[in-house]
Amino acid sequence: MTDNTGDYKALRREYQAKTLDRADLAADPVQQFDRWMKEISVLMPADATSMTLATASASGMPSARIVLLKHFDAQGFCWYTDYRSHKGQDLAENPQAELMFYWPLLERQVRICGTVERLPDVFAQTYFAERPLGSRLSAAASKQSAVVDSRATLEQRVDALRTQHADGLVPKPEQWGGYRLRPVAFEFWQGRENRLHDRMCYRLQDGAWVIERLQP
After folding, report:
1. Which among 37, 68, 126, 173 has most CB atoms closer than 10 A?
2. Does the CA dihedral 104-110-111-114 come out positive or negative?
3. pTM value > 0.85
Protein backbone atom coordinates (compact mmCIF):
# COMPACT_ATOMS: atom_id res chain seq x y z
CA MET A 1 0.00 0.00 0.00
CA THR A 2 1.40 3.38 -0.98
CA ASP A 3 1.93 5.92 1.81
CA ASN A 4 0.56 9.20 0.47
CA THR A 5 1.30 11.26 3.57
CA GLY A 6 3.80 14.09 3.45
CA ASP A 7 5.92 15.87 6.04
CA TYR A 8 7.15 19.33 5.06
CA LYS A 9 8.02 20.78 8.47
CA ALA A 10 11.67 21.08 7.48
CA LEU A 11 10.86 23.46 4.61
CA ARG A 12 11.39 26.94 6.01
CA ARG A 13 12.39 30.39 4.87
CA GLU A 14 13.24 33.65 6.55
CA TYR A 15 11.56 36.95 5.71
CA GLN A 16 14.06 39.76 5.48
CA ALA A 17 13.11 41.84 2.44
CA LYS A 18 11.40 44.82 4.05
CA THR A 19 9.97 46.33 7.24
CA LEU A 20 6.65 48.09 7.86
CA ASP A 21 6.22 50.82 10.47
CA ARG A 22 3.28 53.08 11.26
CA ALA A 23 5.24 56.03 9.86
CA ASP A 24 5.49 54.25 6.49
CA LEU A 25 1.73 54.13 5.96
CA ALA A 26 -0.51 56.48 4.02
CA ALA A 27 -3.52 57.76 5.96
CA ASP A 28 -5.79 56.20 3.33
CA PRO A 29 -5.52 52.43 2.70
CA VAL A 30 -6.30 52.71 -1.02
CA GLN A 31 -3.34 55.06 -1.38
CA GLN A 32 -1.20 52.60 0.57
CA PHE A 33 -2.34 49.76 -1.68
CA ASP A 34 -1.52 51.85 -4.74
CA ARG A 35 2.04 52.35 -3.44
CA TRP A 36 2.57 48.63 -2.96
CA MET A 37 0.91 47.74 -6.27
CA LYS A 38 3.13 50.12 -8.21
CA GLU A 39 6.20 48.67 -6.53
CA ILE A 40 5.33 45.03 -7.22
CA SER A 41 4.14 45.77 -10.78
CA VAL A 42 7.71 46.64 -11.70
CA LEU A 43 9.11 43.44 -10.20
CA MET A 44 6.50 40.89 -11.30
CA PRO A 45 4.13 42.50 -13.82
CA ALA A 46 2.67 39.18 -15.00
CA ASP A 47 1.28 38.25 -11.59
CA ALA A 48 1.01 41.49 -9.63
CA THR A 49 -2.79 41.67 -10.03
CA SER A 50 -3.46 38.02 -9.11
CA MET A 51 -5.64 37.84 -6.02
CA THR A 52 -7.44 35.20 -4.05
CA LEU A 53 -11.17 35.90 -3.95
CA ALA A 54 -12.83 34.21 -0.97
CA THR A 55 -16.63 33.95 -0.91
CA ALA A 56 -19.16 31.99 1.11
CA SER A 57 -22.55 30.53 0.33
CA ALA A 58 -25.68 31.45 2.25
CA SER A 59 -25.02 28.44 4.50
CA GLY A 60 -21.50 29.66 5.22
CA MET A 61 -19.53 27.17 3.10
CA PRO A 62 -16.36 29.02 2.02
CA SER A 63 -14.83 28.95 -1.44
CA ALA A 64 -11.64 30.54 -2.78
CA ARG A 65 -10.00 30.96 -6.17
CA ILE A 66 -7.49 33.18 -7.97
CA VAL A 67 -8.89 35.99 -10.12
CA LEU A 68 -7.32 39.14 -11.58
CA LEU A 69 -7.82 42.66 -10.29
CA LYS A 70 -8.71 44.87 -13.26
CA HIS A 71 -9.07 48.33 -11.74
CA PHE A 72 -9.53 50.03 -8.39
CA ASP A 73 -10.19 53.46 -6.95
CA ALA A 74 -11.59 54.99 -3.79
CA GLN A 75 -14.90 53.22 -4.43
CA GLY A 76 -13.46 49.72 -4.45
CA PHE A 77 -11.65 46.85 -6.20
CA CYS A 78 -13.03 45.37 -9.41
CA TRP A 79 -12.89 42.13 -11.38
CA TYR A 80 -14.96 40.45 -14.12
CA THR A 81 -16.46 36.99 -14.45
CA ASP A 82 -19.52 34.97 -15.42
CA TYR A 83 -22.40 35.71 -13.04
CA ARG A 84 -23.41 32.02 -13.28
CA SER A 85 -20.06 30.84 -11.89
CA HIS A 86 -19.60 29.36 -8.43
CA LYS A 87 -18.37 32.70 -7.13
CA GLY A 88 -21.25 34.48 -8.82
CA GLN A 89 -23.74 32.17 -7.12
CA ASP A 90 -22.06 32.75 -3.75
CA LEU A 91 -22.14 36.52 -4.18
CA ALA A 92 -25.81 36.45 -5.18
CA GLU A 93 -26.60 34.68 -1.90
CA ASN A 94 -24.05 36.41 0.33
CA PRO A 95 -22.58 39.64 -1.11
CA GLN A 96 -19.56 39.74 1.18
CA ALA A 97 -16.03 38.69 0.27
CA GLU A 98 -12.35 39.02 0.97
CA LEU A 99 -9.48 39.63 -1.45
CA MET A 100 -5.93 38.53 -0.69
CA PHE A 101 -2.81 39.48 -2.61
CA TYR A 102 0.46 37.61 -2.04
CA TRP A 103 3.68 39.05 -3.45
CA PRO A 104 6.53 36.68 -2.51
CA LEU A 105 9.30 38.78 -4.07
CA LEU A 106 8.62 41.50 -1.50
CA GLU A 107 7.36 39.08 1.18
CA ARG A 108 4.06 40.93 1.40
CA GLN A 109 0.38 40.16 1.69
CA VAL A 110 -2.65 42.45 1.52
CA ARG A 111 -6.10 41.41 2.72
CA ILE A 112 -9.18 43.47 1.86
CA CYS A 113 -12.66 42.59 3.06
CA GLY A 114 -15.95 44.23 2.34
CA THR A 115 -19.30 44.10 0.62
CA VAL A 116 -19.68 43.26 -3.06
CA GLU A 117 -21.92 44.76 -5.73
CA ARG A 118 -22.27 44.31 -9.46
CA LEU A 119 -20.72 46.98 -11.64
CA PRO A 120 -22.94 48.84 -14.11
CA ASP A 121 -23.06 46.96 -17.41
CA VAL A 122 -21.31 49.78 -19.25
CA PHE A 123 -18.10 48.85 -17.40
CA ALA A 124 -18.38 45.25 -18.57
CA GLN A 125 -19.20 46.26 -22.15
CA THR A 126 -16.14 48.51 -22.30
CA TYR A 127 -13.75 46.01 -20.77
CA PHE A 128 -15.07 43.04 -22.78
CA ALA A 129 -14.42 44.92 -26.02
CA GLU A 130 -10.81 45.54 -24.92
CA ARG A 131 -10.07 41.84 -24.28
CA PRO A 132 -8.11 39.73 -26.77
CA LEU A 133 -10.28 37.88 -29.28
CA GLY A 134 -9.45 34.48 -27.79
CA SER A 135 -10.57 35.58 -24.33
CA ARG A 136 -13.84 36.94 -25.69
CA LEU A 137 -14.54 33.72 -27.57
CA SER A 138 -13.79 31.61 -24.48
CA ALA A 139 -16.10 33.72 -22.29
CA ALA A 140 -18.89 33.48 -24.85
CA ALA A 141 -18.47 29.72 -25.27
CA SER A 142 -18.39 28.80 -21.59
CA LYS A 143 -21.08 28.64 -18.93
CA GLN A 144 -18.53 28.97 -16.16
CA SER A 145 -18.54 26.27 -13.44
CA ALA A 146 -21.14 24.11 -15.27
CA VAL A 147 -20.28 20.47 -16.01
CA VAL A 148 -19.13 19.68 -19.56
CA ASP A 149 -18.50 16.27 -21.11
CA SER A 150 -15.09 17.06 -22.62
CA ARG A 151 -12.62 19.77 -23.58
CA ALA A 152 -13.39 18.95 -27.20
CA THR A 153 -16.94 20.22 -26.68
CA LEU A 154 -15.63 23.56 -25.46
CA GLU A 155 -13.18 23.85 -28.34
CA GLN A 156 -15.96 23.10 -30.82
CA ARG A 157 -18.07 25.88 -29.33
CA VAL A 158 -15.16 28.31 -29.63
CA ASP A 159 -14.55 27.30 -33.25
CA ALA A 160 -18.24 27.75 -34.06
CA LEU A 161 -18.26 31.23 -32.53
CA ARG A 162 -15.05 32.14 -34.36
CA THR A 163 -16.76 31.24 -37.65
CA GLN A 164 -19.99 33.00 -36.68
CA HIS A 165 -18.14 36.21 -35.75
CA ALA A 166 -15.50 36.19 -38.47
CA ASP A 167 -15.25 39.98 -38.15
CA GLY A 168 -14.03 39.54 -34.56
CA LEU A 169 -16.99 41.46 -33.11
CA VAL A 170 -17.97 38.95 -30.44
CA PRO A 171 -20.86 40.33 -28.33
CA LYS A 172 -20.52 40.31 -24.56
CA PRO A 173 -22.55 37.47 -23.04
CA GLU A 174 -25.53 38.73 -21.07
CA GLN A 175 -24.42 36.84 -17.94
CA TRP A 176 -20.82 38.15 -18.01
CA GLY A 177 -19.97 41.26 -16.04
CA GLY A 178 -18.07 42.95 -13.26
CA TYR A 179 -18.05 43.17 -9.50
CA ARG A 180 -16.79 45.79 -7.09
CA LEU A 181 -15.72 45.06 -3.52
CA ARG A 182 -16.28 48.10 -1.30
CA PRO A 183 -13.73 47.71 1.51
CA VAL A 184 -14.43 48.00 5.21
CA ALA A 185 -11.03 46.69 6.39
CA PHE A 186 -7.48 46.23 5.07
CA GLU A 187 -4.49 44.38 6.45
CA PHE A 188 -0.99 45.03 5.15
CA TRP A 189 1.40 42.21 6.08
CA GLN A 190 5.17 42.40 5.78
CA GLY A 191 7.14 39.24 6.51
CA ARG A 192 9.85 39.67 9.15
CA GLU A 193 12.65 37.57 10.54
CA ASN A 194 11.82 34.87 13.11
CA ARG A 195 8.14 35.16 12.16
CA LEU A 196 7.78 38.45 14.09
CA HIS A 197 5.84 39.85 11.16
CA ASP A 198 4.57 43.41 10.75
CA ARG A 199 0.77 43.53 10.42
CA MET A 200 -0.95 46.89 10.01
CA CYS A 201 -4.75 47.03 9.91
CA TYR A 202 -7.06 49.76 8.64
CA ARG A 203 -10.70 49.62 9.73
CA LEU A 204 -13.59 51.99 9.22
CA GLN A 205 -14.85 53.73 12.33
CA ASP A 206 -17.49 56.44 12.03
CA GLY A 207 -16.58 56.99 8.41
CA ALA A 208 -12.83 57.38 9.03
CA TRP A 209 -9.95 54.93 8.75
CA VAL A 210 -8.33 53.86 12.00
CA ILE A 211 -4.87 52.27 11.80
CA GLU A 212 -3.76 49.63 14.29
CA ARG A 213 -0.81 47.25 14.57
CA LEU A 214 -1.73 43.60 15.00
CA GLN A 215 0.37 41.00 16.74
CA PRO A 216 1.87 38.42 14.38
Report:
1. 173
2. negative
3. yes
Q: What DSSP letter does each residue of 41-107 carry, written as one string? A: HHH-TTTTTEEEEEEE-TT--EEEEEEE--EEETTEEEEEEETTSHHHHHHHH--EEEEEEEEGGGT
22-132+174-214 CATH, one of 1.10.10.10, 2.30.110.10, 3.30.565.10, 2.70.50.60: 2.30.110.10
Please give the C-alpha separations between residue 27 and each of 33, 34, 36, 202, 209, in angstroms, as whole numbers: 11, 12, 14, 9, 8
- Domain positions in the chain are 22-132+174-214
> Residue 137 half-sphere exposure, CB side, CA atoms within 13 Å?
18
